[in-house]
Write a structure and sequence with these properties.
single chain, alpha+beta, seven-stranded antiparallel β-sheet, 31% strand, globular
């Protein structure tokens, strides 16, 4: 079965999907970074309003067959950019390919496991890559 995974700009309706992703207890246990209270929608919206307004952060919605399934963002200083992503539950098997300029060296999850960053590998539901270039 073929599916189209694409990136696009974040729209307001995506935030409600991202909020629900944040509330899923299984990926929350795996994630390196989580909200203090995953059910606090006001804090969530405040965080995302600031992130979307920050010119130093690039945020895109990940879509699968046109449906928002997660987000990816890049932040940090030039040469020290980090890439974080969150793919919602039920989206197992989404393949994430990183652009060539991002020479990512490792990935991490809240479980403390680290593994080499590999282009085109099946993504865990959440995590963070860091590396030179962006």
């Amino acid at each position: 079965m073929r599916c189209d995974v694409m990136l696009r700009d974040v729209v307001a309706s995506d935030l409600l999907i991202f909020f629900e992703h944040q509330r899923d207890p299984i990926p929350v246990r795996m994630a390196a970074f989580t909200a203090a209270d995953p059910d606090d929608q006001a804090a969530f919206m405040d965080h995302w309003t600031r992130a979307l307004a920050d010119d130093g952060i690039t945020v895109q919605t990940i879509t699968r067959d046109g449906v928002a399934v997660g987000h990816v963002l890049a932040y940090g200083r030039a040469g020290e950019r980090e890439v974080s992503y969150w793919v919602g539950g039920g989206t197992i098997g989404v393949r994430v390919s990183r652009p060539r300029p991002c020479r990512c060296s490792w990935s991490r999850s809240g479980s403390g496991r680290c593994s080499p960053g590999r282009r085109g590998t099946t993504a865990p539901r959440s995590g963070s890559w860091s590396g030179a270039g962006s």
